[in-house]
Fold this sequence. Notes:
This protein has helices at 7-11, 13-23, 43-49, 62-67, 75-84, 88-102, 111-118, 149-152, 181-194, and strands spanning 2-4, 26-30, 36-40, 73-74, 124-127, 132-134, 137-139, 144-147, 199-200, 205-206, 215-217, 219-221. The protein is of the alpha+beta class. The longest helix is centred in the middle third of the chain and has 15 residues, at 88-102. It is elongated and about 55 Å long. The chain starts with a strand and ends in a 9-residue tail after the last strand.
Amino acid sequence: xxxxxxxxxxxxxxxxxxxxxxxxxxxxxxxxxxxxxxxxxxxxxxxxxxxxxxxxxxxxxxxxxxxxxxxxxxxxxxxxxxxxxxxxxxxxxxxxxxxxxxxxxxxxxxxxxxxxxxxxxxxxxxxxxxxxxxxxxxxxxxxxxxxxxxxxxxxxxxxxxxxxxxxxxxxxxxxxxxxxxxxxxxxxxxxxxxxxxxxxxxxxxxxxxxxxxxxxxxxxxxxxxxxxxx
Length: 230
């Protein structure tokens, strides 16, 4: 079976992930750039195929960035990128804030669960160094494997109620490429403390990307500012 990751994947990726896990847990797929890859969607196969990546340092000072915000702003352009640079972890900060604003009943900052539920990478590409067997299929050395992190992290065989955001969940076993948990937790915690009445200002715009999972823009209104900027 072969699939093409086109606009439908971008707009409705979680529906496609569920379909792939149940119907074609490993299959050939064509990326938008024309490259053919092996698509891996289940947690067990993804965990075997995914190799740890180096953790890339990210820049930024959360306090300095917050001090420069005045009035309505964009979570990505005006906050997350100044904090984390042009790095996927900036999208985890934005994804996390958006999900917390949409779930006001949940107040904890559980970066592992935020990453599992809506992480900054939809996919990770790997070249197999040796022949490996996944889901009963032999993949030769030198082949490209596309690990659907968003799919594997919502695999019901690994996580109970996988589509639910549960900040009380132990999600330490989620698949990740380095979430910079301390920086993300600091950024989200200080943002919420500085702007306790923060609200979405319209619907965020999804990023048109098969690798990075995030928003191109996420406008917010700060509301009253906390007297304590720390």
